[in-house]
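From the shared-data thread, chain only:
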Amino acid sequence: MKTKSNAASNSSVLAPNRRKHKSRPPTKAPPELQRDRWARGLDWPVVIWIVIAHAGVLAAPFYFTWKAVGLFAFMAWLTGSIGVCMGYHRQLTHGSFCTYKPIRWLLAFIGGLSGEGPALMWVANHRKHHLFSDQEGDPHSPRDGGWWSHMLWFMPSIEKSARDAHFQHYAPDLYRDPVMRFLDIMFLPSHLLMGIAMFLTGWLGWDMYTGISFVVWGMFVRVVYVFHVTWFVNSATHLWGYRTYETTDDSRNLWWVGLLAFGEGWHNNHHAYQRMARQGHQWWEIDMTYWAILAMEKVGLAWNVVKERPKHGRPE
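Structure, as tokens:
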């Protein structure tokens, strides 16, 4: 039986903001703000995970196989486009389409395999970003520095009580779901299990060299690729590109991020009409994630897909 969309519960978080946009050049955060951000030091599990992933890429030239490159391409699409862009972003964060609960859980699990954190954290951060986009309170605005918006913003340590309060405030619908909380706990263990599965598949199916190549390309190279192309949405598409719509933030459409990040680079379009499943609004703005949503709709796994702008025609 089809269930109602969770979008209604998110409406207060993503309420429209129609203040006149005044573009400002990106600036560094005030020194006192930087001190507050780093007051508790680094979140070492996160930092170590990022370092290990990038270090693993260095082995790629020494463990090259075409089978591993194929695995990289498939897993980049699966975890980046289906997991992050479709699951985390368009379904769980914005309710751009409805689907069955088991499909929501599956999308959240696949999104977690991207390495970008569990669904609870990702969705809460992104809803907060839309609420305060390029204003004080935005978790990752380039106005606080380009590197901050790209990859430093998630590295400061946060108290567990503050983390839980963050989840309950910005993602209460996900926080009430015990499966989503379980996926939060299983984030790092799931990567360990996936790495073991990749190694065993390559080793038992071919040889040890292939097993290692599957881990290097299917895990490390793929994770780092998905990291950076989606992080560019936070950084590059708030710095460079063209603006189709007048919004209250610095969001822009940037063609190369659109192509590399599975359609997420048409960011000004998205900020103007946040619930639209289709982020490429011109015929040449390729959005492969939207194609996957349409395919799900065709087979009955998605419905109430938000395909058009609101009737009033104004940006949200």
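The radius of gyration is 19 Å.
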